[in-house]
Specification:
9-stranded mixed sheet; D-Maltodextrin-Binding Protein, domain 2; two-stranded antiparallel ribbon; alpha/beta; 3 domains; Arc Repressor Mutant, subunit A; 11 helices; single chain; 43% helix
């Protein structure tokens, strides 16, 4: 394939179609006519020898090939923007950028209210997209440039990944008030005897609880696994399942009289939430501004909390 024959505007339209799943909305998003987008889609189909997006009763859906192309096209467009934009001319009130941040739903619950408020107040045209990735995929995304920042704990990547400590946390046990086996704190025998709910992508469960139990010849009884944190308190309140959860979020849910907190029978459950980015963004003013906004959103949690 001769690269000189490829119109980069086709990639812009492909990216808009993948985001909007509609020719009409994609045209509005990038400011061109609907026939222009339809024509570009036909050219893209010819270029990649695939339908890319197909019509369904609920809208246009990407093919497997389009799903494979999506992250690569996004990375290419962001790299081109980085070449064209003047990194020293970042002005929050007029900036029109999209940032990609990795954070779990529990961190979004804690940080996004203030972060979204600050960004809207200072840079109303800046757009933030959040994704929840496993620790391994988070490192890959930082190194490939698929995301700008990650908020997580204990990530181990190459020396090119930078880290800034945000705030300390620890693990706590959630159970329903009136649980037949648990009052407040829980001993190891009871912890192993009851049924648990576990978060599938939780780095803290594996690292601090399950690894310790395995080392000492024990294993939790996992009755339910869910992909996200925020469903956990509601399940705990209505069942006899218990859960391990970061204290910073758990204390918010414990305001519900139907939920109680207890100390875990597992030592050394303290950990730190950190901000991660690739060194290529170290001196970029826009990235520096975003990191400051995240740090500001995390500042209220940086104080010591009772029981730590």
């Amino acid at each position: 394939m001769n690269l000189r024959q490829i119109d980069l505007n086709l990639l812009v339209i492909f990216d808009a179609l993948m985001r909007e799943k509609s020719v009409t909305r994609a045209a509005l998003h990038i400011g061109v006519t609907q026939p222009a987008v339809s024509n570009a889609l036909n050219r893209l189909r010819h270029l990649f020898k695939d339908e890319l997006l197909v019509r369904t009763p609920t809208g246009m859906e990407p093919t497997q090939r389009a799903e494979e192309l999506g992250p690569a096209v996004d990375q290419i467009l962001r790299a081109i923007n980085g070449l064209v934009d003047n990194p020293h001319a970042f002005d929050p009130p007029t900036a029109d950028l999209t940032f990609h941040i990795r954070l779990s739903d529990v961190l979004a619950f804690l940080l996004l209210p203030r972060l979204a408020h600050d960004i809207a107040a200072e840079a109303p045209a800046v757009h933030v997209e959040t994704v929840h990735l496993s620790p391994h995929r988070t490192i890959e995304a930082l190194e490939s440039g698929a995301i700008d920042l990650a908020i997580s704990t204990g990530l181990h990547g190459s020396s090119a990944v930078r880290e800034q400590r945000l705030f300390d946390d620890r693990l706590i046990c959630l159970s329903r008030t009136g649980h037949p086996r648990i009052s407040a704190d829980i001993d190891l025998e009871c912890f192993l005897a009851v049924q648990h709910i576990r978060v599938a992508q939780s780095p803290v469960d594996d690292r601090f609880v399950d690894n310790w139990l395995t080392t000492h010849g024990h294993r939790r009884q996992i009755s339910l696994t869910v992909p996200h944190w925020l469903s956990v308190p509601h399940v705990v309140r209505e069942t006899d399942l218990i859960a391990v959860m970061p204290h910073r979020a758990a204390e918010r849910f414990a305001q519900d009289p139907g939920i109680q907190l207890g100390e875990l029978p597992v030592p050394d459950c303290a950990f730190t939430w950190s901000l991660y980015w690739h060194k290529r963004h170290q001196s970029n003013p826009a990235q520096h501004w975003l990191r400051d906004r995240v740090a500001n959103a995390a500042a209220p949690f940086a104080k010591d909390f009772a029981g730590k």
